[in-house]
Write a structure and sequence with these properties.
The complex is a heterodimer of chains A (433) and B (304).
Chain A (H helix, E strand, L loop, with lengths): L8 H22 L2 E5 L5 E5 L1 H25 L10 H28 L4 H26 L8 H18 L3 H20 L7 H21 L1 H4 L5 E2 L5 E2 L2 E2 L7 H5 L6 H27 L1 H11 L1 H6 L4 H27 L1 E2 L6 H13 L5 H17 L4 H18 L22 H5 L4
Antiparallel strand pairs in A: 1-2, 3-6, 4-5
Helix pairs in contact in A: 1-2, 4-10, 4-13, 4-14, 4-15, 5-6, 5-7, 5-13, 6-13, 10-11, 10-13, 11-13, 14-15
Chain B lengths: L1 H31 L6 H21 L5 H28 L9 H21 L4 E2 L7 E7 L2 E6 H23 L1 H11 L1 H6 L4 H27 L1 E2 L3 H16 L4 H21 L5 H15 L14
Antiparallel strand pairs in B: 1-4, 2-3
Helix pairs in contact in B: 1-5, 1-8, 1-9, 1-10, 2-3, 2-4, 2-8, 2-9, 3-8, 5-6, 5-8, 6-8, 9-10, 9-11, 10-11
The chains are: A mainly alpha (433), B mainly alpha (304).
């Protein structure tokens, strides 16, 4: 196929020049001048014209590269033909990836037993997988954009922390309580926002999340305010503590105590919780309520016309999602041993949301892979702490532009007709297809 | 009573700033139908640019305050407007026909980009500036409490009123304003009748960003500080103002801004400073539930 003739060199050059000019104006003051509060409180500044020139040159070069890439890729919507053999291979790989990933996850504590860092990272990733799966119920299945998911995470974490430190309740009692409390909050949020949709809903959930955080910060007598809650008890294996004492698990089993036991235990705990979330979601998707969620996501008006009670449908979605958030929160509290409002900012909500979006809004495997990519990526950029959120934001914008349906997943409804009906092209043209 | 009068003045000044930001939200929502989540951060960028240009002007030896203020105002409006234009061009225009939530998510990403960009470029610490406009008047004095109106407050309110008048003229009397209103009603039809929709939408973002830059500069003058995180909360409050006034309505945005400013100030004065943000956010939720069309908005007709 002959490559379509794109615009000439002059055009590319002109475009890059304009981009560079815009960049020069944008960055002239923000990057060219650096301000800082001086020792006596007055502002001082110094110039960074080298950085400015570098940035503008990068934009110039980047613009040229982008344009060349665009020409090489061809017009938007070009279908690349993949040979059948490759397609078959991909299909096999797609089917195999979930079991392989699951088995590998089970084996992680065995393989990396002595590498504390990897175990901790694994726990972190699994926590986000669980949060992603929980939010997936609300965003991916029911199509309700929730920007305040972290509120339920916070409710779960504070429920466990306060119940355990004030009343001495054990983790296994508090875990369901945390879930129920978070679900109640989910319903509380759900009720007022039932009539809202889309953007408005997103903003209200965001405001709700911020309110919860602000109340936690300011209600010092209960929550300890910005200082948080510390000394949260560690989880026990159904009453047997994982501690070095004579009652501890290691003493009872007659093996030598090692702090790694607790890490491994936490790893399997969060894995079990995450798998529970996954299992419940998959089962719910096949129940009428799950189908109602998916119908709601596709078209709310049609849903109502077909007699689906949108009130209960939305409320159950909020409550279910919130409950899993609460579980994850309780786990977070017991893992950290210390929680403070710092952990429950809007950034956290956005991160979980980005995981769900990246995963393809509705695909369970997609969310898991997205969490792995996202948290793994964050760890890779650990040295560049301050650029992390910048890159994250950019990635979110680019993702929306290039693959708005998610990188990995898809969001096909769970139930659909097995065979597509063959209709003639005339009918399709008339809009009857 | 005197205390109340003082709070009233403070509230109106704060409300003017919120109103200026809210206009950007309401215009964009009216035309494109999306919440420009990054608008609060545009306001923050405007504050930063005002700060930096002010610093440069002072250091090259300019001493006439009105001249400095005018130059700073123009520079920050121009550069911030370019930010608004770029954001629309990069993050929103490619998504105009994408699925419902895509622009919102892209806007959240853009908000992170802008706030972290200024954190990286200018550091995370709060930037204080010495008071630029000093002095004021004592309006009346009674039982040991003087009600004061400072010159900064006068400047903020007067600038807001002037810009609002200018802007109302722009929307109601010029070609651009007519194009904007046409796009608001029906983009396809407007395009068929020769309105350049892309350009009109770009201009909407440019104007919104310019007004946000004014708000940023006023904030800098009034509070004497900027930091990279201030756009988030101010943005949500201004959005609340836009919703309260009725989204899509320009006088509504100003009215909503004043209402939010007054509520926040009075809440801080009579109840608790800690919960002032909670009060503002609660108002957002309450308004959206009980009167989603706001004070001056039109009811949205749903088309299937």
């Amino acid at each position: 196929m002959p490559a379509p003739r794109g615009p000439g060199v002059a055009f590319i050059f002109k475009k890059a020049l304009i981009s560079a000019l815009v960049a020069l104006v944008l960055f002239s003051l923000m990057i060219g001048i650096r301000t800082e509060a001086g020792p006596n409180g007055q502002l001082i500044y110094w110039t960074r014209f080298g950085d400015l020139a570098a940035m503008v040159a990068t934009v110039f070069g980047g613009s040229i590269v982008m344009e060349l890439l665009r020409q090489w890729w061809g017009p938007v919507g070009t279908v690349k033909v993949i040979p059948p053999s490759v397609q078959a291979g991909l299909a096999v790989a797609r089917r195999a990836i979930a079991p392989v990933l699951l088995i590998f996850t089970f084996l992680v504590p065995v393989i990396f037993y002595n590498q504390r860092y990897i175990l901790d990272l694994g726990i972190l990733v699994l926590t986000y997988v669980m949060l992603g799966w929980g939010l997936n119920v609300v965003v991916g299945l029911a199509g309700l954009l929730d920007l305040g998911y972290v509120a339920f995470y916070a409710v779960g974490a504070y429920s466990y922390a306060l119940l355990a430190t004030n009343f001495g309740l054990s983790f296994w009692v508090c875990l369901p309580l945390a879930g129920i409390l978070a679900a109640c909050w989910g319903v509380m949020l759900g009720f007022p926002v039932l009539r809202l949709r889309g953007d408005y809903l997103a903003i209200v959930t965001l405001a709700f999340g911020e309110i919860i955080r602000l109340v936690i910060i300011n209600w010092q007598s209960l929550t300890g305010g910005p200082n948080g809650v510390s000394g949260i008890p560690r989880p026990t294996l159904f009453g047997i503590p994982l501690a070095p004492g004579p009652d501890g698990l290691s003493a009872r089993l007659g093996i030598e105590f090692s702090p790694t036991h607790r890490i491994v235990f936490l790893f399997y705990l969060i894995l079990a919780l995450a798998l529970l979330t996954n299992w419940v979601t998959i089962r719910l998707r096949r129940l009428p309520i799950g189908r109602a969620w998916e119908a709601l996501r596709e078209d709310e008006v049609a849903c109502r016309a077909l007699g689906i009670n949108t009130t209960t449908t939305k409320l159950t979605a909020f409550a279910t999602g919130a409950m899993f958030g609460g579980f994850a929160g309780a786990f977070f509290a017991t893992r950290q041993g210390f929680i403070s409002p710092e952990s429950f900012t809007f950034q956290e909500s956005a991160l979980v949301l980005a995981i769900v979006v990246l995963g393809g809004m509705g695909s369970q495997l997609g969310v898991a892979l997205a969490a792995l990519t996202m948290i793994g990526g964050f760890e890779l950029f650990r040295g560049l702490e301050q650029y992390r959120m910048l890159v994250f934001g950019l990635a979110m914008v680019l993702l929306m532009i290039w693959r708005p349906r998610g990188l990995i997943g898809h969001r096909a409804p769970t139930v659909f007709l097995r065979h597509s009906q063959a209709i003639s092209s005339e009918l399709a043209r008339e809009g009857r297809g | 009573m005197d205390y109340f009068a003082q709070q009233l003045i403070n509230g109106i000044v704060l409300g003017s700033i919120y109103g200026l930001i809210a206009i950007g939200y309401t215009m964009v929502y009216g035309i494109v139908g999306m919440i420009n989540f990054a608008h609060g951060d545009i306001f923050m960028i405007g504050g930063f640019i005002a700060l930096i240009s002010f610093l440069i002007l002072v250091s090259i030896g300019l001493t006439m305050v009105p001249v400095i203020l005018l130059i700073v105002l123009l520079v920050s409006m121009a550069i911030t407007a370019l930010y608004g234009w770029t954001v629309e061009r990069i993050a929103y225009r490619p998504l105009r026909h994408s699925f419902r939530l895509a622009p919102m998510l892209s806007a959240i990403g853009m908000s992170f980009v802008l706030s972290n960009f200024s954190q990286v470029a200018q550091g995370a610490r709060v930037k204080p500036v010495p008071p630029i406009i000093t002095g004021g008047y004592t309006l009346f004095e009674g039982d040991g409490f003087a009600v004061r109106l400072s010159n900064v407050q006068i400047v903020v309110v007067v600038t807001t009123i002037v810009l609002l008048a200018l802007f109302t003229w722009l929307v109601s009397r010029t070609r651009l304003g007519r194009d904007m209103r046409a796009c608001e009603q029906d983009q396809t039809m407007a395009a068929l009748l020769g309105v350049d929709v892309d350009r009109t939408i770009s201009m909407t973002f440019v104007i919104g960003a310019a007004l946000a830059a004014v708000a940023g500069m006023m904030y800098l003058l009034y509070y004497g500080l900027v930091d990279f995180f201030m756009g988030f909360v101010a943005g949500i409050k201004a959005f609340t103002a836009a919703v309260l006034g009725g989204i899509g309505s320009l006088p509504g945005a100003m009215l909503g801004g004043l209402a939010i400013g007054l509520i926040e100030t009075l809440w801080s004065a009579y109840f608790s400073v800690e919960y002032k943000d909670v009060a503002a956010f609660s108002i957002l939720i309450i308004v959206l539930i009980f009167m989603p069309t706001g004070l001056l908005g039109r009811p949205e007709v749903e088309k299937v």
